[in-house]
Write the structure tokens for this entry.
Amino acid sequence: MSTRITRTVAIMAALLLGLMAVGGSVAAQDSTPAAEKPVTVGQTEVDWSGDWEYDPTSSMESQATLTQVDAENGSIKLATYGEFADDTVDDSSAALETFSSSFFEGAGAQSVTEAGSGTLENGAVWKIYTFDLQGLQLTFLATVSETADGAFVVTTLTGNTDQFPATIEQAQQEITLNGEPIYLAGVDAQEVTSGLNATPVATPDGA
């Protein structure tokens, strides 16, 4: 298993747990400092608008992390964009599996259930999962593609399951890459979330 990717995901998982705690305190959310933007990840300039906040603690040269917390409504949103040059991972599908399994393990997610997967027109692979964490049902969407020089481009979005189609569309509108609205490019919010109300088979790692 890639240590480079798993270290990054461990930081993401810790952030998610922190957001759960922040969700209980409006004052904590309001105290988050604003960050200079845009930020550069690998060869890509990441920018955002709306209420997204850049989290410098869980961001690094290879990944940018954006968050939103609405404590009053119990709403949590976590968006990431990363570029990882890692020759210990064979392909995009393996990178996605490594990333997602490490995320769920690090967060202590319960009832992890795969709710859909596929390949986008641009060649990126995607999977969507639901999971329970501290009384909330959340959804995790990840897409992974590979650049010409062998780096893996990993995009993830985590949010409340009952709001997730709208969360995807919001992220697509408000997060830009190199000045273009191509975050989660090719993802149809209604199509990829069509399995969320079904009863998919739980993954082996699900509790």
Summary: The first strand starts at residue 39 and ends at 41. Residues 3-22 form the longest helix (20 residues).
